[in-house]
Specification:
Blueprint lengths: L3 E8 L7 E8 L5 E6 L11 E11 L1 E6 L15 H12 L4 H17 L2 E8 L3 H9 L3 E7 L7 H15 L7 E7 L7 H14 L3 E5 L3 H9 L3 H8 L12 H7 L7 E5 L5 H10 L2 E4 L1 H6 L7 H6 L3 E4 L4 H4 L4 H12 L3 H7 L2 H6 L17 E5 L8 H6 L6 E6 L2 E5 L4
Parallel strand pairs: 1-4, 5-6, 6-7, 7-8, 9-10, 10-11, 11-12
Antiparallel strand pairs: 1-2, 2-3, 4-13, 13-14, 14-15
Helix pairs in contact: 2-3, 4-5, 13-14
């Protein structure tokens, strides 16, 4: 791949203040060679160059929670109480075949690029996401889901997981990694959680878990009651033998929490849960718009950040939120926790990379990192600071996206 030079009205490195009239030089290996003011970045005569005077160049956005295999399901699952919504989504998924899942995931990757997202942490059970990332030359972690709420299912669930992971590991690369996701406390028994976490660690695979997302999940583990408990009773699944735990405490008791564990949502948590998460070194995928859409409440984002937890922002699936717009998510997080524009932007860039253990490779514009760049058209209010202007943007303001120095998206009228 040839070297490339981009310049813009602003470059926002994230690790450092915004730079006016600045440029980024990309080396032939797809990494950043130089970042700085226009006059200080070399302009080799044989290197293609492009300028975006009315835009800002920022690090490629990092989406720490997606379900790319659900692309195409926007608006197809009616609003309902969460346990009912989950059942309806499952019924919809059962009508989609393997080829359709792969096509959906590939479209999801392309949609991410159009929204300025260059790296994803995806969860799904079809295996389509890692195949799509590999086929399209994408970047991210694809967590293979495993289910089994009945303790008697552990052996069969683990056999299926191990077989599937073995099949999918051939799609891994230096930019694409496989992980494991015991889905959620209402779909996974304690025994399966323990077995899946132990096996994943032995294989060197990261973990992701939907955790403390809804009041119904808290009712299940706290009182063996509520809609998930009723669903378990109907299916003959034993209820938690010792109710009274919070979801976080329950996963701690089953050896799931750790530095390699990405905890998705974490809405229904208490101060003691935050202590547990921080002590274990977990990372958090905060999904403010999805949480709000499903009526789960507001996650204690300010407290999670104050505790030093690694927090990134995810969109969740288009079935939940309609579109993949991390700018909208950043604004929602900012409002929720009274964040500065700089912190909100960091949550969808460097902090997201840190949550995934990828901060040395992506998340900011620094020499030696991958040249994952998003070019965003800025609004006309030049009196506002550049990061404030960025936070007013949306996915439709993305002009171009580069992944490892390769342009993967560009507006024809750009």
């Amino acid at each position: 791949m040839p070297a490339y030079r981009l310049s813009a009205g602003w470059v926002v490195p994230v690790e450092g203040p915004p730079i006016a009239d600045a440029a980024v030089l990309i080396d032939p290996d797809g990494r950043i060679a130089r970042v700085g003011p226009e006059a200080e970045v070399p302009m080799p005569s044989d290197v293609p160059a492009r300028r975006f005077p009315e835009a800002a160049i920022i690090p490629g956005l990092v989406n720490v929670h997606t379900h790319l295999e659900l692309t195409g399901f926007a608006g197809q699952v009616e609003d309902a109480e969460f346990a009912v919504w989950i059942r309806r989504l499952r019924e919809l998924k059962e009508r989609r075949g393997p080829d359709e899942y792969r096509a959906a995931a590939r479209q999801g990757v392309v949609d991410c690029w159009a929204a300025g997202i260059t790296t994803v942490a995806d969860t799904g059970d079809s295996g389509a996401a890692i195949q799509a990332l590999a086929a399209e030359g994408g970047s991210g972690i694809a967590y293979q889901e495993v289910f089994g709420p009945h303790p008697d299912q552990v052996e069969a669930s683990m056999a299926g997981l191990e077989t599937r992971v073995t099949q999918l590991r051939r799609f891994e690369s230096d930019r694409v990694r496989l992980g494991v996701s015991p889905h959620a406390p209402y779909t996974v028994s304690g025994a399966l959680y323990r077995a899946a976490a132990r096996w994943a660690r032995g294989e060197g695979l990261p973990l992701a878990v939907h955790l403390a997302e809804s009041p119904a999940e808290v009712e299940l583990l706290g009182a063996a009651a509520g809609p998930f408990a009723e669903a378990w009773r109907r299916r003959g699944i034993p209820l938690p033998s010792e109710p009274g735990c919070s979801p976080v405490a329950w996963l701690e008791a089953h050896d799931v929490l750790g530095a390699e564990t990405l905890c998705i949502h974490t809405v229904q948590i208490e101060p003691s849960d935050i202590v547990r998460l921080a002590s274990a070194g977990c990372a958090i995928a905060h999904c403010p718009i999805s949480n709000r859409r499903h009526g789960h409440g507001a996650a204690p984002l300010a407290s999670l950040l104050a505790a030093g937890l690694r927090v990134g922002i995810g969109t969740d699936s288009v079935a939940s939120v309609g579109q993949l717009d991390l700018f909208a998510e950043a604004r929602a997080a900012r409002e929720l926790a009274a964040l500065s524009a700089e912190v909100a932007l960091e949550l969808v860039t460097l902090a997201g990379a840190r949550a995934l253990g990828l901060e040395t490779a992506i998340g900011s514009l620094r020499s030696g990192k991958w040249a994952d760049l998003t070019v965003v058209r800025l609004g006309s209010d030049i009196r506002a600071a550049p990061v404030e202007r960025l936070l007013r943007s949306n996915a439709n303001d993305v002009v171009a996206t580069f992944l490892g120095g390769r342009q993967v998206y560009g507006r024809t009228n750009g």
